[in-house]
Structures are given as structure tokens and as C-alpha cells.
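Hi team,

Below is the intake form for UDP-N-acetylmuramoylalanine--D-glutamate ligase from Macrococcus brunensis. Please confirm the fields before the structure is written into the shared record.

FORM ID: S-0412
PROTEIN: UDP-N-acetylmuramoylalanine--D-glutamate ligase
ORGANISM: Macrococcus brunensis
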Amino acid sequence: MKNVTDYQGKQVLVLGLAKSGFETAKLLLKLGATVIVNDGGSLEASEDAQALRTLGVRVFDQGHPLELLEGTELIVKNPGIPYRIEILQEALKRNIPIITEVELAYQIHEGRTIAVTGTNGKTTVTSLIGDMFKHSDLKGHLSGNIGYVASKVAQETDEKDYMLTELSSFQLMGIQTYRPHIAVITNIYSAHLDYHGTQDEYVRAKMNIFRNQTAEDFLIFNSAQKELLSDYEVNGQIIYFSTTEETDGSYMKDEKVYFRNEFIIDVKDIVLPGKHNQENVLASVAACKLAGIANEAIIKTLTTFKGISHRLEFVTEQQGVRYYNDSKATNTLAASFALDAFKEPIHWICGGLDRGNGFEDLDQHVQSVKRMYIVGETTEKLKAFAEQHDIDYTICHDVKDAVNQTAEYTEDGDIVLLSPACASWDQYKTFEVRGDEFIRQVGVICQMND
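The structure came back. Fields below:
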């Protein structure tokens, strides 16, 4: 951990507690800052809030009073808190800098960083890279949006270590000096418009990942979307990946994977399922080759890595019916990948938070859908979608109810697929909670049928 002195004696407001706020507050104390924590909800029962108070942190909850800005020189904001709330708008007027904790993590990290963002695939790519590092002589630390608070992980690294960081657009809006040696953008499609307001703002947030790079750094980018870079200044070296054409990076040709014309592996030997994962593999291979990972470590991962929880995760097979948990599919593109992965009849559990978008992007991906089980705020939209495509449907209270309803209609050879095409927040705190409920209820159904 670098000896950073910029925060000594500085009053810093940590906005939003949660895991990242708790770790951020503790780190800032180590760095000599005067720390205030503020959360909009009630922290009366929070052990973390009490622990911070014991350390001398002032903690305020149940609102964001503007008085907290008095004397504040910096705000470290929870990524999920939108900039449109009053206290942040007032902070901007007063020219108080606002960052997210990944910026703080970068400032104290002594080694290099591989950072991954994108609309879809970023968790899979980060996990693949992490697994490749695990099989290599180099040390990599998973961090960021993948579930490990970056500002905590950074304290455990030295100058030889890599931070392997998954970044959301929300996190990337709050950076200043953040500069990954290797940046990966898997793809960019429409998402999070309820937060960003416009697609242009969302794209700009994603592109922040490379804004501080220099000529010695690398940007790994999807060749199919290279036109998106035309409006941005890229100072790093662009390395493209492609499943359809040869590039000066990673690509597929004749069912083989190459990096800069060097053969890596036959596609048939890659165990991670789905065509969409081929791009994830190529992005991961490029990042690890640039970091100096040996082919043996890369191949070890590609021949053993079967995927991660809530991403087209096989749950079980019962009486010839296979169950898949794809709760991470929080938009239509991710859901289309899952729907295209099966030729068998699909019982599709879908729906969730209504972000204002339609589902017409799925028009060409529902040929195998036998029945839809619709939940959440988007019920009316998905009901209309089902009727438009002449698909039978059942309106369900929640995912648990949907799993129960599938038992009435499934038969040998069918697929039950949770791939909501929507965020979870109308009914569930996270997509993980939603996926766990699916898995739990599938287990109940299986026990009943034993």
C-alpha cells in the first residue's frame, strides 16, 4: 500500500454505508482524514455504523442534510447513489470533488491494474482473468463490482501484484486519476438509462476507463463495435478481439483461438458454454497475454472453467427437465444469449424492474420458448410481448411462484430458464438474491418429486 498523504487533515464525506462505505471510511481514517459517514436509510441496527462510531467517525442516517457539506473537501460516493440527489447537486455547485472508492483504491495500490467493464460479460471476463492468474506465476487480486471492495483489496497488494477489477458505469463516473495498465471493454449496449438519463452519458461513463491511459497502456476492445471509439481520444494501444475476423489481437479462425497469430487453443476444448462466451474468452486471453501469462495457465483455465453463479448456471436435472439460473441477465441482450443457448423447449421466467425499455430486441430469440412465466413491474409489457409472438404465458407473483408454476407444464426434455431481461430491484435487493430464490425453490420442487 502506497504512503498517500493527500488525505491528512482533510474532511471527507462518505455517502452511503454498505460494504464499500464501511471499508472506505476505515481506509480514510488510516490515511489521516476526518471522516463523516452519511446514509439515507436507518443505521440504528447496523454493526458497521457502530464500529465506525467507536473509531471516532461521525455517522448520520435517514436523509442527506446539506449541513454535512460544511467543511467537506471531498465526497466518496456509493456508486449506486445517483448524482441527481440534492446533496450531490449542491456539492457540484460548490465544486466539491466527488469520487467512488475505486479511485481511492487506485491511489494506494502499488502494482498494476487490469480493469474490465462493459454492458455484458464483464463479470465472466474478470473471473476468467482471475482464474488464469491463479494458474500462473503472477499474483492477481479480484476486486470491484465482482464482490470484493477495491479499497480493501488494494491494502493487501504490493508492487508485483495486479488488481483485477470489474467496474460498472456508476463506478467509472467517479474517477479522477484512475489509470489501468490494461483496460477491457467487452461491449456497449443500452443499459442503466434510469440512472444515466441518456445512452450518450452511459457510453461516456464506460469510456472513462481509458481516459487517463498513456502510450504504454492497452485498451482491449470489441472489434464489432470499433466505431464507438471514433468520438474519443485513445492514448493507449488498441487491441481488438473478434470472433469473425483476424485482428492484431485475439481472434477465432477455423475453430481455433489465436493471439497475434499465435495458436492458443481449439474452440472445441473450451468448456465454457455459449457463443456469447467466445467473445469473453477472447477478451480474457488478450488481457492475460499482454500481462505476460503463459499459455499453459490460459489453457488450464479454458479447459476447466465452467462459468460463475447466476450466469447461465446449470442448477440440476429432475425427471428430464433441466434448470438454469441466469439471474444476472438484467437486460435484453444478456437474455438473448441465454435464449439462443438452447434448442430444446424453454420455459422462460422473465420480468422485473421497469426501466422504460421495451422487449422488441428479443423478437428473433424466442423461437424455442414454449411458455413464459412473467413477474415484476414489466408484467404488462411482457404479457403484450407474449401475445404478439403467440406464446402461452402465466402471470406469477415472484420467482418462487414462477418455479412452482413450471411444474404444471414441463415435461421430459424441457428447459426451465430464469433469464429475466430486467433488473431485480422491484422485488429483490440484488440479482444474486433473485437467483438464490430460484435455486432454493428448484430444490423444493425436486424434493417433492423424489
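SUMMARY LINE: Residues 431-449 form the longest helix (19 residues).

Thanks, M.
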